[in-house]
TrEMBL record:
Keyword Repressor in record: no
The protein's name in its UniProt record: TetR/AcrR family transcriptional regulator
Keywords (A to Z) from UniProt: DNA-binding, Transcription, Transcription regulation
Domain HTH tetR-type: 14-74
């Protein structure tokens, strides 16, 4: 019986794929989508041009992969902040605090790639991805409101869907203000006020 002694084709990878995508994120952050070239990605990701095309594809494909990876990581952390065992008011506050903290994280670009860079890309797939991500965020918050209704924290007629959109709109607004340099302390204070606002009943009484 013969053994297959053929060696695998090609050279083994000398880079970590996940790490290369993180580096690509920084490249797109620093230059925007339109300003980035393949040479920028080769240099920034630390991947040779042949390997870059073979593993990641062209600039558009790399950007889409970056977006998906970035959104998954941010979404998981936002969900953790929102769904950790605590009161509804604290959950909404934690969700908005996370938006501020991630947008003002020391050592990284201010803002959010999904809010500050991706919307400027003229591409149907990117737009659909952003719409899906926004809908997913609102659905997550709406689910938290509905759990609170079931638990008796808020009235059964609380407008969960509408208020969920308001929460995610507040998060985007705080992120954009971080991008233009609004101090973190100010944004965190505003996040607290926003959490109170979305929990006002129709009669104007806070639901806590």
């Amino acid at each position: 019986m013969f053994q297959n002694t053929a060696k695998p084709r090609g050279r083994p990878r000398t880079f970590d794929e996940s790490d290369a995508l993180k580096k690509a994120t920084q490249v797109f952050w620093s230059k925007g989508y339109d300003g980035v070239t393949i040479d920028d990605l080769v240099a920034g990701m630390g991947v040779g041009r042949p390997s870059l095309y073979a593993v990641f594809g062209d600039k558009r494909a790399i950007f889409l992969r970056v977006l998906k990876s970035y959104a998954e990581a941010k979404g998981a952390r936002a969900a953790n902040a929102l769904l950790s065992p605590q009161s509804l008011r604290d959950s909404i506050g934690a969700f908005l605090h996370y938006a501020v903290e991630s947008a003002t994280e020391k050592g990284s670009a201010r803002g959010c790639l999904l809010i500050c860079v991706a919307p400027l890309v003229d591409d149907d797939e990117v737009r659909k991805f952003l719409q899906k991500a926004a809908a997913g965020g609102a659905a997550l918050v709406e689910g938290r409101f509905r759990d609170a209704i079931t638990a008796g924290e808020i009235p059964s007629d609380f407008p969960a869907a509408e208020r969920a959109i308001q929460v995610t709109d507040f998060a985007r607004g705080l992120t954009m203000r971080a991008l233009i340099g609004t101090p973190r302390k100010t944004l965190l204070e505003d996040a607290e006020e926003a959490a109170d606002l979305v929990l006002l009943s129709r009669r104007g009484n806070p639901q806590r």
